[in-house]
Fold these 2 entries.
Entry 1:
Amino acid sequence: MVTAMRNRLIKAAVISLLAGAQACSLGSSAENDTVEPIALQALDLYVSRSSFRQASFEQFKISSRRLFAECGRMAGGRQYSQYQKVTKLSEEDAESIAQAASKVKRFADSHELKLDEEGESNSMFDPGQLRIKITAGEGTTEIQTTLDTVATPAKSSTELINRLASEIRGVALRDSQSGTLCGNKNFFDLKSKAS
């Protein structure tokens, strides 16, 4: 009788563990889970791409809850800035960016990312460049790929990068008087998070 009771308890424990594990796997995804934000020290985002008329760039730097946004055109291997602005991030924006950066950093640090090699932004057929550098207490993570790879994400890794870039662009757009960055609401196919 004791053996039968013990077997029933073990069976019930195993069933509840399996049910809990199944619920966890069904209800979670890398994109939607809230993670503990990293202690973000600095974040750099750079994007560039050429069109029929010109090559353009945008870059963003975050440090000490301040966002530096810059955009402009490129010619002859040089960048010509047309807009620069420094914004103090609200607590909500800083938290949202840190959350998105945490997801990218943790994913990149725990997976071997197989991303397309960045382009050179020198012709309209070039896929462009996207570079992210996230510095936190755990170290620095750098990602380099094409703008096109992230603008139209096909994998979890590029979706996370897209969300981070869109989050940062959304804050910068909201703070610009024109509602654009150098006349662009989107940077090619890279959209901005609506505020």
Note: Residues 98 and 109 are 16 Å apart (CA to CA).
Entry 2:
Amino acid sequence: MIYTYVCGAMGAYNIEFKNGVYDDASLYQLRHEVAELFYAQTTHQLRFKLGYDLEKKHYGFEDEVERRNQPQVSLIGSRTGFVTTFATTDVFLIEAPSTSLLEILVTEKPALVLSDERGLRLRPEILRLLRKRVAIAPDPEAFTQAIDSLLRDGFVGPLWQGVHASNRELFEAFTRTGGRPGLENITAFLTKTLSQRT
């Protein structure tokens, strides 16, 4: 299986940093731990989808992945559109609730999302609908444990109970337009465009 790990958005980072939940070191440590899970096996592949030109900043993690040059772990550069990864991804790993999470709602692919309420609290109604569509890990430790479990056992365990990748309730709630034709046309266009690439 091919897993695509979506590095979190700057807005999410800023909130989490401001609230003292994470810092640069802890986020890179999380990515390193996840990568090590994939390096330790040979059945699955992990692709880190980078953003914000991270590959040019040489923070160390990206350089290490390139230096190790092993087929289990690779990088997808910032300039590659996220939607272009949909057709070749089996499972999405989302580092923080962001626009990327909304984009995957048009697919019927499973996803695991790190949603740490210490940093970013989702509205209860959104969280209720989101739990029907994706597995949610409440902290980095649960996130890495869930990934380890996925690699060994597949989609079992409490995080996956009640989760259906085909559930469209959140997508429909998010794109509900209340009869505004312009927004309905935009929603139809985005749905059609994204669906063609999945």
Note: The mean pLDDT is 82.
